[in-house]
Amino acid sequence: MNSHGGLLGRQVKMVFLNDSSDPTTVATNYTKLIAQQHVSLVFGPFSTLLTVPAVKVAARYGYAFPEGAGGGPSVYQLNLPNVFNPSPPIAQQLVPFAQWVASLPASERPKTAAYPQVNDPFADPMTQAAQAILSKAGVKTVYSKIYPAENPDFKAGADAVAATGAQLVVLGAVDVPTSAAFIQAFQQQHYNPKIFAATSGPDQGSAFTKAIGGTGNATGIMVPGGWYAGVKNPLSEAMVKAYIAKYGGTPAEINQDVAEAYSVGEITAAAVTATKGLDNKKIISYLHSGVTLQTVQGPAKFNSSGENTVAQKFIFQWQKAGSFVQVLPSSATGSVSVLNPKPSWSS
Questions:
Q1: Which of 5, 218, 250, 281 has the CA that lies 20 to 30 A from 144?
Q2: Residue 111 above 80 pLDDT?
Q3: Of 54, 51, 57, which Cα lies nearest the Cα of 73?
Q4: Radius of gyration of the chain (CA)
Q5: Contacting residues for 347 by C-beta, under 8 A, at least 6 apart
Q6: How far apart are CA 98 and CA 12, in angstroms?
Q7: Closest-CA residue to 136 (of 101, 88, 180, 184)
Q8: Is 3.40.50.2300 the CATH classification of the domain at 2-89+255-300?
Q9: pLDDT tens digit string along 6-58?
Q10: At what angle do helices 256-275 and 280-287 cross, to 10 degrees?
Q11: 95: Cβ–Cβ under 8 A, 6 or more apart, which residues?
C-alpha cells in the first residue's frame, strides 16, 4: 500500500502488540491502542476467542473493527455495529462438504462418522453444523467429543476414534499441531477413514505437510475455506505474485491467513477512500450501506451483525503430487473432482 502512495496520500504505519492468545491481554492491548496511542484505525486479532473481547473495546470507543479471523457465531451474536468480517461465516464453512457427502449414492456414502473437537468457538460450530446435516442423511455418529482447551489428550482421543472404525472423520481443529497429532495417531493405529476433513490445519500449506510427514500423508484430506492460492480472482492472483516476489516460495505455501488479513486491509482501504477520511463513524456507516466490495477472497457485503452475506465457501483437498485444489461446490468455477475415497497413508 505504501509503495502506491498509502491511504489518502499518507503513509501507513502498522503497530503490533502481542496478546499471547489471552482474552484479558487482548482487551488491554486494544484499550492501549485506542485510548493511549490514539491510533487512527484498528484491525481484529486472530481467532473468535480473542475477537469477542477486542471488538467490545473497539465498540466502546466507536471504532470500526474490520477483522478476518473471528467468524464464529459468538462474534455475530454480540450484534455490535462495528464488526466487519470479509471471510465466510464459520458455522457455514463445512456445509458444502456435508451436503456433498449426503448426496453420495448409498453404496458410496459413509455409514458411520466421528466428530472429535477442540473446545473452541471456531472449530465447534462448523463441525456441529456438518454433523447435523450428515445425521439427517443417515450417517450414524459413533463418536462425538469436545476436548478441554487446556492440556487436551489428543493421542487418547485419536485412539478412541480409531477404535470405532468410523468411515468418516470430521476433526474440529484450530491449528496444524492439533491436526498433526490426530493424523500421526491414526497412522500408528493403522486407521484410515474413507473420508477425512478438518476445520483447520490442512489449509496451512507446507507447515501442514511438513508436520505430518510429507504431502503423501495429506492426500485426500479436505478443509473448508474462502480462499486458496489458485483461486481464479485477479485481485488474489496479483497478491500471490507480490507475496512470492517479497517472501519467495510457491503459491501452495501461502496459507489462508494471508488472504484473510489482506482482505481486511482491502475493505478498510475502500472505506477510507470512499469516505475521504479516517472518521470511524463514517467508515462504519459506509460498510453498512449495502455496498459490495471486492477482495482477494471474493465479494464482501455486510449485514447488521458484520457477517459477509455474499462470501464464497469452498472445500479444498490435498490431492496427488502435493497439489492443493478446490473441489466443492462442484459447480463452482475452478473445482475439480473430489478424490474419494481417501488413499492409505504413505508412511
A1: 218
A2: yes
A3: 51
A4: 20
A5: 187, 213, 214, 216, 217
A6: 42
A7: 101
A8: yes
A9: 899 999 999 999 999 999 999 999 999 999 999 999 999 989 999 999 999 99
A10: 110
A11: 129, 130, 133, 313
Question: Could you tell me how many residues make up the chain?
Answer: 347
Band (253; pLDDT cuts 50, 70, 90): confident
Domains 2-89+255-300 and 94-198+204-227+319-328 share a fold: yes
Calpha distance 315→225 (Å, rounded): 6
Number of C-beta neighbours around residue 85 at 10 A: 32
Q: How far is CA 77 from the centre of its chain?
A: 19
In this prediction the pTM is: 0.80
Q: What pLDDT does residue 85 have?
A: 98
* Terminal-to-terminal C-alpha distance of the chain: 45
Question: Which CATH number applies to 94-198+204-227+319-328: 3.40.50.960, 3.40.1090.10, 3.40.50.2300, 3.40.30.10?
Answer: 3.40.50.2300
- Residue 98's pLDDT is 98
- The full set of domain ranges for the chain reads 2-89+255-300, 94-198+204-227+319-328
Cell numbers linked to 121:
468457538
Q: Where are the beta strands (DSSP E) in the chain?
A: 65-66, 83-84, 112-118, 140-147, 168-171, 195-198, 222-225, 293-295, 298-300, 314-319, 323-328
Query: What gap in Å lies between CA 248 and CA 114, rounded to an integer?
Result: 39
Measured distance CA(41)–CA(34) in Å, rounded: 8
Grid cell locating 336: 475439480
Closest CA to 260 of 330, 327, 204, 221: 204
Choose the weakest-confidence range: 36-45, 55-64, 226-235, 338-347. 226-235
Is the separation of the CB atoms in 252 and 229 below 8 Å? Answer: yes
